[in-house]
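In this section we walk through a basic example: taking a raw amino acid sequence and producing a predicted 3D structure, encoded as discrete structure tokens. The instruction is simple. Fold the sequence below.
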Amino acid sequence: MKRHLLAAGCAALALAACQKQAASSSDQAAASSAASDTAAVAGSSAAVASSAAPAVASAPAAPDFVAMAAASDMFEIQAAKIAQKRSKNADVKAFAKMMVADHTKSTAMIKKAVADSGKDIKPPAALPDDKAALIDALNKASDADFDKTYVDQQVKAHQDALMLMTSYSMSGDTPALKDAAGMITPVVQMHLDKIMSIQASLK
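The resulting token sequence is shown next.
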């Protein structure tokens, strides 16, 4: 009888130990799973945040910024003067008129900022080859294709100008030029919005 009781007691102790070990293993597995889920959520959130963050181009050095800004203004003014003569579209002609006025102002702002900075930076006197080629293409466009050619060029040109002004206003190396870029940026954004609206209307 004692042996039966002793055996039953040992069996009960063994069963309890097994149950405790199983519960411990289950708790560890649950904790591990929760940790993995937390890490996965954190990783996913980081990935979403990373993909949502806008990419901003690094700002060029002051001499390069001035050269690029000057080339942009010269191109806009020259192209606009051609559009004022050749376009038959009232919206395109109005936009071209605005380009001459606004880019003449931004040229003056950049020149003043250079003078205020005390730096010896001279803007280019002529268009670079890539923008000269755009003017050539505009001059050669047929009457039927002129407005589309001009408008498509302007969308790309203003996208590039917006990136240039935004990047320099954020991280440029010369305070006076940074301030000028900051004031020009919203004007370029307005131009881009307007020309994209015109582009949509031509399709």
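Looking at the output, two observations stand out. The helical segments are 2-52, 62-86, 90-117, 129-140, 143-171, 175-202. Residues 1-54 have pLDDT under 50 and may be disordered. In the next section we compare this with other chains.
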